[in-house]
Fold this sequence. Notes:
The protein has helices at 15-39, 47-67, 69-94, 106-127, 129-134, 144-183, 190-219. It is mainly α. The chain has one domain (8-223). The model has no long low-confidence stretch (mean pLDDT 87).
Amino acid sequence: MGELFTFFGLISHDKTFIYMTHMLLSAGIALVLVRMAMSNLKMVPTGTQNVMEAYISGVLKMGTDVMGQENARRYLPLVATIGLFVGIANIVGVIPGFEAPTGFLEMPLTLALAVFVYYNYEGIRRQGVIKYFKHFLGPVWWLYWLMFPIEIVSHISRLVSLSFRLFGNVKGDDMFLMVILMLAPWLLPMIPFALLTFMAFLQAFIFMMLTYVYLGGAIAVNEH
């Protein structure tokens, strides 16, 4: 979005440069938060450690509701890392002078591809190739020829949905914020800022939830 002022845009207006700098900034903030939380661990957590432990507990509970505690713990590092990264990247875009890297299709698509490849890999690893792909055929043998291509399209649509949902919502929020700042740059944007902050966390929550759902579906094929 070339019309939106960014501090990194003072160095270069190149889209790739803007995207990479904001993505690296988001990753750096995430690493700093994790480092701060682990630098002085205490039995009774305080400060950043307290916030991060509350976040991890919330993600674990989310996963437990989807796939049970044992499997939720197994995939907790992946889901919590993605959620933290996406959440910070979304929040960065709410701050004037910065742009959310999730507002560029490259980042949501890369994350969606990683989730897509990983949950299929886990399904094959846990169930075996034959058993995993057998559930693509459906329960009725004479509909195998119809169900298999439908299931393939359904799984590919997850990739599109996961990436474009995040990209579309964040890009829309960026455009909305730009319009508000142009029309009323002082007091009025306070309410939209609160709304966009909530939406930033909501989109990270949805991405994490869908990741758990897809993983849960892949490893529970034998129960279908």
